[in-house]
Design goal:
The protein is α+β, with helices and mostly antiparallel strands. It is built from 14 helices and 16 strands. Strands 7, 8, 9, 10, 11, 12, 13 and 14 form an 8-stranded mixed beta sheet that branches.
Length: 413
């Protein structure tokens, strides 16, 4: 795919953005020595070839219909000369990009300060002169918002929304986000190799109550792990309803009327949902033996031990159904707990299709396959809740990424 680069763009230190910047950055991502944790998601890329100063070709190893999603979701361009001059770890202490805000100072454990980039290529942006990211404990965040010490809280707890409205100085902004908690299943061995058992688990969990108690109502029940607005999402699918009688009947017909125990790995941000799910599954005799893990240890725990279920929260930076599906179900993913060759073939065929219409059709069929096979316990899409000081104009993106280039403060009258 050939890219004609935007001209007259410079990094924050003045270095010119050009084809060499792109070639260097892509090579750096693909180098295993760099240790990029999402390397598997860009492994279709062979490299970048310079055509001229302002033109570059991204070459892939195989046809890749999701190349643009991969680039947008994972790749940022870094200044090659800056890194060669200052060392590969220079960006850790002094970030240097082409974006609307440039790094000023990092006070560890307290704040990061960014200022407006006067050389930003998009004239008129950013709208704010300075950004200050504060690091506050969750219980302190709403108090800081209420007092005016901060203007935006990006994770306003549902328990604080009423108090925020009553404060009179705060507006509550709710927006859909490409984020779900997943409960993937080891369908490669008993008892979860039986589709009736997997369906029973879906019918046994009251998803509406899960949204109510886990998210304080700030969520939507979904039919698979894809969400409205994502490429490849199938809007025709209907979520599994809560039907305890049907769940028990399926357990009986599968030969498990008294249930069984499942060994479950739970990543930290999915702990609350996991505990609620466990209570519902007890109603059909399924006991969850839960083990907690962290982002730092999850791959080690997944690859060194055997699990029946894996519960974890997951965003979608690619804005395509491929991302979450492939993380938890694809045979080559470090986060999978079982392999399904039929699923793998369908996923690979979809991703390799270059025609947009045909690829979307294959993606929706894959979404239906995952739903009908009940390869996971499908839960909810999260509605992200923000607390915003009145007078601040802020539009949260659906990906949940911290984009503030168009955020501004209005004068209050």
């Amino acid at each position: 795919m050939r890219f004609h680069l935007r001209q007259n763009v410079r990094f924050h230190d003045g270095e010119k953005f050009d084809a060499e910047s792109v070639r260097f950055s892509i090579a750096r991502y693909l180098d295993v020595e760099t240790g990029f944790p999402a390397l598997g998601f860009i492994s279709s890329i062979q490299g970048a070839v310079i055509v001229d100063t302002n033109t570059v070709d991204i070459v892939t190893k195989v046809p890749d219909g999701l190349l643009l999603n991969r680039l947008a979701g994972f790749i940022v361009i870094v200044p090659s000369r800056y890194l060669k001059r200052n060392g590969d770890h220079a960006l850790e202490l002094t970030p240097n990009g082409t974006g609307p805000f440039q790094f000023v100072r990092w006070v560890r454990g307290d704040r990061i300060i960014l200022s407006r980039n006067p050389q930003y290529w998009n004239v008129g942006y950013p709208k704010a002169d300075q950004l200050v990211f504060r690091f506050l404990k969750s219980r302190q965040q709403f108090l800081a918002l209420k007092s005016g010490d901060v203007d935006i809280v990006t994770e306003l707890p549902g328990t604080e929304t009423t108090a925020a409205i009553l404060a009179g100085t705060v507006q509550v902004v709710k927006a859909p986000s490409f984020y779900t908690v997943t409960a993937s299943l080891n369908s490669g061995r008993p008892p979860l190799d039986d589709i009736r058992v997997r369906q029973a688990l879906n019918y046994a969990v009251n998803k509406e109550d899960l949204v109510r108690y886990d998210l304080r109502g700030n969520g939507r029940v979904i039919a698979t792990v894809t969400m409205d607005g994502e490429g490849g999402h199938n809007p025709r699918l209907i979520p599994y309803p809560y039907d305890l009688a049907r769940a028990k009947a399926l357990m009986k017909s599968s030969g498990h009327p008294k249930g069984f125990k499942l060994r479950v790995l739970v990543k930290a941000q999915g702990e609350r949902a996991a505990k609620i799910i466990a209570q519902y599954l007890k109603n059909i005799g399924v006991d969850l033996d839960m083990h907690m893990t962290t982002d730092a240890d999850v791959v080690r725990d997944l690859t060194t031990q055997s699990w029946d279920m894996f519960i974890a929260g997951c965003p979608d930076p690619m804005a395509h159904s491929f991302f979450i599906q492939s993380i938890y179900l694809y045979g080559k993913s470090p986060y999978k707990i079982s392999s399904n060759l039929s699923y793998d073939a369908r996923l690979e065929a979809m991703a390799a299709t270059l025609d947009d219409g045909r690829r979307n059709d294959l993606a929706m069929k894959l979404d239906r396959y995952i739903h009908e096979q009940a390869l996971m316990v499908f839960l909810y899409q999260r509605l992200k809740t923000y607390g915003v000081r009145k007078g601040i104009e802020f539009s949260p993106p659906v990906t949940g990424m911290p984009y503030f280039f168009n955020t501004k403060k209005e004068l209050l009258h």
